[in-house]
Write a structure and sequence with these properties.
Chain lengths: ~90, ~110
């Protein structure tokens, strides 16, 4: 699982049945100071996150299928939590 | 999962069993600001996308799961949604760096 920031929303009217009635969000992984941010990705929202929220994202298909309770879901990234605070020991 | 723009069609007559009849599209993977990332790739279409459409794509094993019938086919990129609207904040507006000590987000 990774920490990321929600930077945007994606609206799709035509989509695969596994994606119906759920929101897709643009997530940017967080990084340490001095590091360059890694590539952004799209994640399915399972919490009620919005733009600007820091979120916990599961980026593994089997975990995503368990979260969505669908053994055949074609989903990899799922937002599974909204982060309140993070402590980094420097 | 990632964004991509459909750039063309790919036609292939000899195919692995289970992949016959699938529509293949040439796509350019994009980042959140719709800038190209990497080289062109071939994706299987399950949502009837056309050339020029902005799409959501899924990679790896989950691409094969997106197939309507056969779920065990050699496919690693599938189009699963056509984007109507994309809203993204500018990177300067949101800090994506973690700092030493406590980082409070709420």
């Amino acid at each position: 699982m990774i920490l990321g920031k929600v930077l945007g929303t994606v609206v799709t009217t035509i989509s695969h049945p596994d994606y119906k009635n759920r929101r897709l969000l643009v997530v940017q992984p967080l990084c340490l100071p001095g590091e360059s941010p890694s590539d952004d990705f799209i994640a399915l929202d399972n919490t009620q996150a919005g733009i600007g929220d820091t979120v916990l994202v599961n980026r593994e298909g089997n975990g995503a299928r368990q979260v969505l309770m669908n053994p055949d879901a074609c989903v990899i990234s799922v937002i599974v939590g909204i982060v309140d605070s993070v402590h980094i020991q420097g | 999962m990632l964004l991509g723009r459909v750039r063309g069609n790919a036609v292939c007559t000899l195919k692995y069993p289970g992949t016959q009849g699938l529509k293949l599209l040439v796509v350019q993977p994009l980042n959140k600001y719709l800038e190209p990332v990497g080289a062109l790739q071939v994706a299987v279409d399950v949502v009837d996308a056309g050339i020029g459409d902005l799409c959501v794509m899924v990679r790896s094993r989950e691409a094969a799961l997106a197939m309507p019938e056969v779920k065990f086919v050699p496919i690693d990129l599938a189009l699963v949604g056509i984007v109507n609207e994309l809203e993204v904040k500018a990177e300067e507006e949101i800090d994506v760096h973690l700092h030493n000590g406590w980082n409070n987000f709420t």
